[in-house]
Amino acid sequence: MAAFIAFLHHIAAFTLVAALVIEFVLIRDELTLGAARKLRVADMIYGAAAGTVLLAGLLRVFYFEKGSAYYLASVPFIAKMILFVTVALLSIYPTVVFNSWRKPLRQGQVPVVSDQQRRRLRSLMHWQLAGVVLLILCAAVMAKGIGYRG
Question: What angle do CA 26, 52, 96 make, to 5 degrees?
Answer without folding.
Answer: 45
